Amino acid sequence: MPTISMISYYSSCPFESILDAYRTGRGRVIMRGKTDIELLDSKSQRAAIIIKEIPYQTNKASLIQKIAELVENKSLDGISDIRDESDRTGMRIVVELKRGSEPLIVLNNLYRLTSLQSSFSCNMVGILNGQPKQMGLKELLRAFLEFRCAVVERRARFKLSQAQDRCHIVEGIVIGLDNLDEVIKIIREASSNANALTCLISEFDLSEKQAEAILDISLRRLNLLERKKFTDESKFLREQIVKLEHLLSGREKILQLIEQEAVELKTKFSSPRRSVLEETESGQVEDIDVIPNEEMLLTMSEKGYLKRMKPNTFNLQNRGTVGKSVGKLRVNDAMSDFIVCHAHDHVLYFSDKGIVYSARAYKIPECTRNAAGTPLVQILSLSDGERITSIVPVKEFAEDQFLLMLTVSGYIKKVSLNSFSSIRSTGIIAIQLVPGDELKWVHLCTNDDLVAMASQDGKVILSSSDIIRTLGRSTRGSVAMRLKNEDQMASMDIIPTSMRKDLEISSDSSKRNRAKGSKGPWLLFVSENGYGKRVPLSSFRILPLNRGGLIGYKFSSEDRLAAVFVVGFSLAEDGESDEQVVLVSKSGTVNRIKVRDISVQSRFARGVILMRLEYAGKIQSASLISDTQTES
Asked: In the record, which residues are listed under signal peptide (predicted)?
């Protein structure tokens, strides 16, 4: 049947929504239409949602019209066509999806925005003792049982009274028929009806009602057959009187009769359940409930275009190659950021004005490498001229984690991650900035981590995050590095606690270099002209903030630092790095190479070519990928 549908209940607390109505008399029952997902074209991976049943009181034509209106108003994405293929064999509404659309997300939107999912409220109010009262199922059944007991008792007493009255009359008629000749004689000799009535009462010891019944009987009923009928009726009435008196002798007998009648009604009128029970995560289904928490790549351009792609979009390439294009870019646009995250992650978007926004990673439409991407303004409520400069994926807002922020002018600030667990759609302040400064880098850290900061001139400060005071969101922070001339900060990365114990910090860097050689972990430097190198972390000593820094890279006049990473998180059996670095040029070309192919050199060396940029301009951004994030 088209309106059978399904009853949904929470998996975290099974049947709770239904039980609430049963316990308290107030609640709701969630009904869903029955749907299937069919693959229309295996090559293009186009799918369709097939609606086979709709909830109770839902009109099919109205449902189709509502879906069409939502698609036309762009309130419902991912649908290319809708048609009704219902016939006498059953309902079939086909909702065709666009290529690349996630069927479960579209289905959830149909549940949320249309009557494909409906809620039926329960408000069980009855009249109890003359007063309206809201009752749960147990109290309601008790009240109904008391009512049934009273009804059955009144019915039994009424039937008993009728049977006793009728039995009294029938017994009188039988006496008259047994003495028919005397009765006829009395009637014939009587001077009037009243005289005959009096004579019958006195002669046969009858009541007035019995005597009247004898006088009212017609002559044709004075035969033997009629006498037998009256005799049988008298016997039946006496049996009924005994049964009714037995029923009224105790409450238990009445309850047994009520149960018997209920079973008879169930046997005669009951039908199997038509609406099946379906388990769901919650009454209001969210997209996250059905989207797999898969790994993904996020890219962002300077003009604010986002793309979500599969991790294997970019294959591994050799060092020094040209790379593969990340896709279409607008005129005068360039790649800005490239991160690896998971679909369920909260992605924090930090703007140049010090404002932070938040959205789940899966909110970004998935696309191919050659697609143009989705404008950030369709996902975030950005103000005019505001640019997103850093994106940070967060799995959970742990109490022992912090966000470390670095501005272009060299100011650093540490804020508890919990401060960003609830971000309104219009964003909240992450850091206070002075005119001319902008927030550029944001990383997750703990108090036990080290932080590596580098300027465009190649100066490096390696410092401990525990010396950076935790501040509120509406503060500026402290000076991270003394910058000379027109130098600006170029990059920042975090050295986790697990790496700190591998470092042997000494005041004499030359002794460290001789002792440690090329053993990791390392700082990976990437220059704007596509050069790079690895320098052992042991080549740098820990410094306090507000210092000039140590030389990490000697640049020519035409080159500057683009990014710096801490590598050596993942090591192969030979002790070399298993990580990979993804380089993105301003023109959108992407190159993905092994870190182990990048030479380990001194702090003063120029490095090796990582990516040839004759036709691709400058390196715009770089991202590190571990061995667990490589192409399957």
From this structure: none
Query: Is residue 600 a contact partner of residue 535, using CB atoms and an 8 Å limit?
Result: yes
What pLDDT is stored for residue 381 in this prediction?
Answer: 87
> 188-197, 286-295, 330-339, 438-447: which range is least confident on average?
330-339
DSSP state of 420: G
Tokens standing for 369?
Answer: 């490498």
- Cα separation of 10 and 8, whole Å? 7
Could you read off the pLDDT of 419-436 as tens digits, one per residue?
999 999 889 999 999 999
Backbone torsion region of residue 59, taken as left when φ is above 0, otherwise alpha when ψ lies between -120 and 50, otherwise beta: beta
Scored b (16 or more CB within 10 A) or e, 598-608 reads: bebbebeeebb
Torsion sign, CA atoms 56, 61, 62, 65: positive
Q: What is the pTM of this model?
A: 0.57
- Residue extents of the structural domains in the chain: 6-123, 139-249, 292-629
> How many CB atoms are closer than 10 A to CB 417?
20
Q: How many CB atoms lie within 10 A of CB 219?
A: 7
Kind plus residue range of the DSSP H or E element containing 158: helix 137-178
Helices (H), 482-593: 497-500, 509-516
CATH of segment(s) 6-123: 3.30.1360.40
139-249 against 292-629: fold identical: no
Q: Residue 361 carries which DSSP code?
A: G
Beta-bridge partners for 108? none
DSSP-derived letter for residue 64 is: H
139-249 maps to which CATH number? 1.10.268.10
Beta 276-280 vs 6-10: how paired, if at all? Answer: parallel
Q: Phi-psi region for residue 254, left (φ > 0), alpha (ψ -120 to 50) or beta? A: alpha
- Does the pLDDT at position 364 exceed 80? yes
For residue 600, what is the DSSP state? Answer: B
Would you say 332 and 341 are in contact if contact means Cβ atoms under 8 Å apart?
no
Sheet containing 439-445: order of strands: 439-445, 402-407, 411-416, 478-479
CATH topology of domain 292-629: Neuraminidase (2.120.10)
Q: Which helix (H) or strand (E) holds 256?
A: helix 251-269
Alpha carbons 382 and 249: distance in angstroms, whole number: 82
Instruction: With CA atoms as reference, report the closest residue to 116 among 81, 70, 80, 73.
Output: 70
The closest alpha carbon to 592, from 315, 284, 185, belongs to: 315
CB 376 within 8 A of CB 306: yes
